[in-house]
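ping. complex inputs:
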Amino acid sequence: MPLSATYRVENGQLIGARQIASPNYNQRPESAEIQLIVVHNISLPPSQFGGGYIEQFFQNQLDWSLHPYFQTIEGMQVSAHLLILRTGEVIQFVNFHDRAWHAGRSSYLAQVECNDYSIGIELEGSDDLPFEEIQYQALAKITAVLQQSYPKIQQHIAGHSDIARGRKTDPGSFFQWPYFRQLLNAKKM
Ligand SMILES: [Zn+2]
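pong. complex structure:
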């Protein structure tokens, strides 16, 4: 099903994605316009996939006692607009009109606070493992749709490590930027 999924944006919602509401968001500053996509990876516990823990984490419903790693992130309130699972399924947690909490202290082309003006997309993955082909397909499809809906994004697509240098490493060296760009360009032809 995810392979054939088509997406479109309506009122800040990605139609075609599963919707799960995260409480971890606030308003974008009034002057802020969406002009950047930030690509991340996340897995809970690290490098383990499935289990639904990321979804629980973004809803502040993760049981911290289930795994020693969870205790190291206990109480953190974070979110991303979108999560792309290993299966290619896409989940939206925060409306694009709202400010999700994914970037932290950050800057892109000398503009600080990337959360104010970006859309955060998490790939279920880790810095140590290749991503799934179906995740690249979904990411390219969604990016093309977002570029159309929010034209200021243009080619402004960055990794978390690019906007928080020295602090963050994701999406990591296994994320194939050239391949992703190639898929994205093919979508626009
Ligand atoms: Zn990140």
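Residues 2-24+32-187 form a domain with the Lysozyme-like fold (CATH 3.40.80.10).
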